[in-house]
Amino acid sequence: MVLTASQQTALDKISDFLSSDEKVFILTGQTGTGKLKMVAAIQQLANQLGIPTKLMAATGVAASAVQTVVVDNVQTIHRSIYQRAHDEVDVNDQGSQITAVQLKFPLMPDTATRLFIVYGATMISNHENAQSRLQFGSGKLLDDLLDATGVRTRSAQLIMIGDEYQLPAADASVPPALSTSYYLDHDLPVEKYELALQTATIGNLGSERQQLAAMISDPAKQQPQEFVDDNQTLFNLDQRYSSDPERQQAIVDQFVNDQRHYGVGTGCVITDGNDLANNYNQQIRQQLGMPKQLAAGDLLYFTRNQYDLPLTTPQGPVTMDVFAGTTICVTGVGETREYANQQCRLHFQQVQFYFLDDRTRQSYTAAMITNLLMTGESRLSDQEAVGLYQDLYDRFKQVAPDAMDEFRAQNQQLESDAVHRQHDARTNEFRQAAVQRLQQLGVTLPDKDQLGAQDYNQAINSLVREHPDADPRQDCKRQKLPAGLRNMLKNDPYYNAITVQYAYAWNCYRAEEGRWPSVYVDFGYTGNVSEHRLRFAYTAFSCAEQWVAVRNAGSIFRKFKLNVLAANQNKLAKEIEAAAPVDQVALNSQEQALFDRLELLCQEAGVIISGLDREPTYLMVYLTGAATCRLQCYYSTKVGWTTANLATDQGTIDHNQAFQTLSAKLRQLEED
């Protein structure tokens, strides 16, 4: 394996780290520095040293990326450190209606592995979501990772690999897992090294990402910058089209043309929200000629990690782990089924598909929940999740009508109701037992009189999550579910139905660590420079292998150089005719200053300002006379007015001296 000088330096430092008492090594680097190659190099080094090693990734997309460079098994952090113990189900008094479902994933410590390599650490969250129906350990992923790996209590070591400039988890402003201060706060010795950026090999994309990284790292640089539309690797649709619908349609048109020419999966629209991604998905499908409902030829991606997923092949049934972000192509749709109650309606459909990265195109069949396809969401609502379990529960009772009564009777024999109340987190008896255990562990308890009953109970529940040894539920003798129902949970095709979203457009958080030849980036709204918008741009640019087109880029891309465009002569004439006369448009002081300068330039070129279209963030100025033109002007609170493009018919561009004079003077205005 040939390494760059910076990569070799990193590997040498990691070699020293593995023979030291240090606990954590943070390896960072921008896109293009070879972080994936370093995963393989570190694993090879650990194997040579005989160190038991485990590879983990923060997301399913990151895990898929690691699998392209290593032969060993790679799992997500969630799959590696949590066990699927049981579903906690609340049932009404009649034992017929499910009222709530919470999936519990207790921590699963690993005492055998000595080295843990974690890729995509930018996306590791440490924000507790105690209200989620999916309860993973303490609720704080990064804290749980330290506990499960045992780096604080034994001779284990952790290598965190990520990009400090990408979008972190949605609940964080910066990546906590790449921060030395986090580990130092936990009394863990830590070392950090940043890989040097290699020479860009794909036009300007490397330098553009580097410029965005510089803006992210230095708040003083977070002001409008000049990104050159080079017509090869970066295309500014705001500059090339006069109206917002035209820019969106340009993305749809180009995406569809590329897919028809190069095949599915060669491009991706990346947005900063689910709603906009859903809008693009529907428009692209419509232009591809797809029906409203799911159909053969559709491109989908898994919205969640699905482990031990039951699938059917022509050779027979199989189970496999499928990561979130895995892309499939539908080859056929089969029968449909629905489940409905007062709160929700679930739509199931049998679907044949192949995995897009499988060259053999092995065919699989599975039940699919299609609810998400029209909403843009990435997971079922709480009502739909409860409905999914209710559907399973109802079908189980049809098969075994007496099973639940027999199960309750058996549980009564194992543990009386009085004892079980200590093991039921909803009861006061549970909290009283938890308080006794916490006191025995020496944990400082909150003051009930100061907090009040509700806040006190929540505080005790939080302490129990932080100290699993104090959880009274570990002594519960009752079974959670009947054996038959547990079996259905694992194998039922509808309860384990795959959840998917159309894969033409992705939310940027979902696309992170993904790669496509062509990427279309829609910022969704215009706005000033912010760290989030810079990280969004950097992350989206990192997904592109060849070129990027941007829309609604706002002030980050405000200072494009003046671009001359050839316009349709008839269309331009209609736009000029429809524009509002300047003397009928109220101008503010900044706009008036712009017009005063433009009028002087126009007089010298023999043209006048004849009309105006006002948009939220730009003005379209129409010029007539010796040359008939359309001038697009943007306004930024930080840099004032800046011109983006000057459009006229091709004959004027080629032969009109007045146009050439005007263009030269406007370029000087842009420089000024």
- Top-tier CATH class of the largest domain: Alpha Beta
- Overall average pLDDT: 88
What's the tally of helices? 23
What global shape is seen?
Answer: globular
Largest sheet properties: 6 strands, parallel
State the distance separating the first and last CA atoms.
Answer: 51 Å
Level-2 CATH architecture of the largest domain? 3-Layer(aba) Sandwich
Computed Rg? 30 Å
The overall strand count is: 26
Number of domains: 4
What's the CATH topology label of the largest domain?
Rossmann fold
InterPro entries: P-loop_NTPase
Organism: Limosilactobacillus pontis
Protein name: AAA family ATPase
Pfam families: AAA_30
Task: Map the helices and strands.
Elements: H1 5-18, E1 24-28, H2 35-48, E2 53-57, H3 60-67, E3 74-76, H4 77-81, E4 86-91, E5 98-105, E6 115-119, E7 134-136, H5 141-149, E8 157-162, H6 180-185, E9 190-194, H7 205-217, E10 234-236, H8 237-240, H9 244-262, E11 267-271, H10 274-287, E12 299-302, E13 306-313, E14 316-322, E15 327-340, E16 345-355, E17 364-369, H11 382-399, H12 403-414, H13 417-420, H14 428-440, H15 448-451, H16 453-466, H17 483-491, E18 498-502, E19 505-507, H18 508-511, E20 516-522, H19 531-542, E21 544-551, E22 563-566, H20 569-578, H21 589-605, E23 607-614, E24 618-625, E25 629-636, E26 640-648, H22 650-655, H23 657-671
Parallel strand pairs: 1-8, 1-9, 2-3, 2-6, 5-7, 6-8, 10-21, 11-19, 11-20, 17-18, 20-21, 22-26
Antiparallel strand pairs: 4-5, 12-15, 12-18, 13-14, 15-16, 16-17, 23-24, 24-25, 25-26
Protein name: AAA family ATPase
Pfam family, one: AAA_30
Organism: Limosilactobacillus pontis
